[in-house]
Amino acid sequence: MAPKELEGAKQCNLKPQTKAGFRGYPTDRDHPLKSPMKWINGKRIDDDIGPYWRIHDKLYDVTKFINRHPGGRAWLELTKGTDITEAFESAHVTEKASSLLSNFYVREADVPRNSPYTFHENGFFKTFKRKVRPILQKVGTGPTLKMLMIQDGLMLIFCLLGLYAASKHCYYAAIAAGIALAMTAMCAHNFFHQKDNFRMNYFDLTLLSSHEWRISHALSHHLFTNSIYDIEISQLEPYWEYLPKPNKTFLQRYGCIVYEQIFMPTVLFLEAIKKILFLFTGEAKFRIQNLFPYFELFVMMMVAPSLGAGLKTWAVIHSACSFWFSGVGIIVAHHHPDIYREGDKFRDEDPDWGLCQLDAVRDRAEITGNLFLVATTFGDHTLHHLLPTVDHSKLHYCYDALFATCKEFDIPFHFVSQWELFKGKYLCLASNKPNMNPPGFKRKTE
Questions:
Q1: What H or E segment, with its residue span, contains residue 232?
Q2: pLDDT (tens digit, 9 = 90+) per residue, 164-173?
Q3: Dihedral angle of Cα 281, 286, 292, 298, to the nearest 10 degrees
Q4: Count of the separate structural domains present in the chain
Q5: 441 falls in which pLDDT band (50, 70, 90)?
Q6: Which residues contact 205 (CB under 8 A, 6 or more apart)?
Q7: Which ranges does the record mark as transmembrane (predicted)?
Q8: Residues 6 or more apart whose Cβ sits within 8 Å of residue 3
Q9: Does residue 393 sit within a domain?
């Protein structure tokens, strides 16, 4: 084993043999100031392919295709110099993209992929894609009118409540506006997974950035869920220690129940401070969307009885948004002792990417079937992970294909309750011993 791997295993407090097959430990994973740009730059170092894009074991130069990419140029610009196998396979349901690759072929890769995941033609994920392809060709992959109305309606409700709260200096209305803003952002998350569109910018009405979340959420969390390459795990450390590390402190295991009530209203403010810092250091590039929340502040100060009242209203709105967004986000689908986390027994014999996604996700029975809840609480999460570029309003058409594929591969599937995941989050935080049983998707605790 390379020294880097040994060092990484010690840093992560995981035995080297329990690592999920990655060739090395992620560059800058333990940096005290984590950021999406550090993550993607670190991945360029780890993948080490020069100015190309890697898909499976081949290198491509798609520079001339950037301006013609149907999903928008940002996706290719962000991933230049990295292995995009997982992103390519999950983003493209049809075979059209694969048919174009030969036009950009450069050469074979010199070393094995850093990622352990496989995409065999007879494997789970490729089989699922073949089953779902004719369904999506019939119903489409874009948003329905109802989905657009939910997204635009939430944004309008936020604006109206925010203006009312500022003009009347009403904190109750400000809290309601903050919740509406959080729901707007969670719904906009559906849109930033897709090709470039203006609704993805609703996410920037919060103190977060849709551009950065395309990296941290779409390219990191979605592709390497609950692994050492999942920045949505690492950026919460050491306050939320979801990995089964043996040296967790008592406070890390049990104190979260108390101190997260202080952290959650401030999480988005802390992210905003980091974003400003990275803008000054040059790590991040300025985008006009960065000004959206501060334009809100300006408007509220103009319509409020005083500048101070406007500032307080704005602060309450974004505190409520931070609390709601963080609270929903960290309990929706990925944190429970029965769910795979880095350090648990990995699917060494069959690390099909689709199966590994199923191991790391749970779906809530109360959410499925209601598009509003799906859009505003990260619902239909298994299908969303398998088909991230398919609009939430079209995912329900894909359940029959998912169930049929699970049956074909003898994979049990069942929904769990929101309460089970809520409890599971704290059980997961308290756990300091890895699960050494082979992964079994959706297996109930005996």
A1: helix 231-234
A2: 999 999 999 9
A3: 60
A4: 2
A5: low
A6: 155, 158, 181, 184, 185, 292, 293, 296
A7: 147-165, 171-192
A8: none
A9: yes
Taking 80 as the threshold, does the pLDDT of residue 148 lie above it?
yes
The pTM (predicted TM-score) of the whole model is 0.91
DSSP state of 118: B
Same domain, 223 and 296: yes
Q: Residue with structure tokens 């050494």?
A: 436
Please check whether residues 358 and 209 belong to one and the same domain: no
- What confidence score (pLDDT) does residue 15 get? 40
More confident residue, 207 or 257: 207
Range of 170's domain?
149-329
Give φ, ψ of 333 to 5 degrees: -155, -15
Tell me what pLDDT residue 151 has.
Answer: 98
pLDDT tens-digit profile of 20-59? 678 889 999 999 889 999 999 999 999 999 999 999 999 9
Give CA–CA dist 219/281, Å, rounded: 23
Taking the C-alpha atoms of residue 260 and residue 367, their distance in angstroms, rounded to an integer, is 24
Rounded Cα gap, residues 143 and 22, in angstroms: 36
In contact, 150 and 372? CB cutoff 8 Å:
yes
Residue indicated by tokens 């979260």 = 256
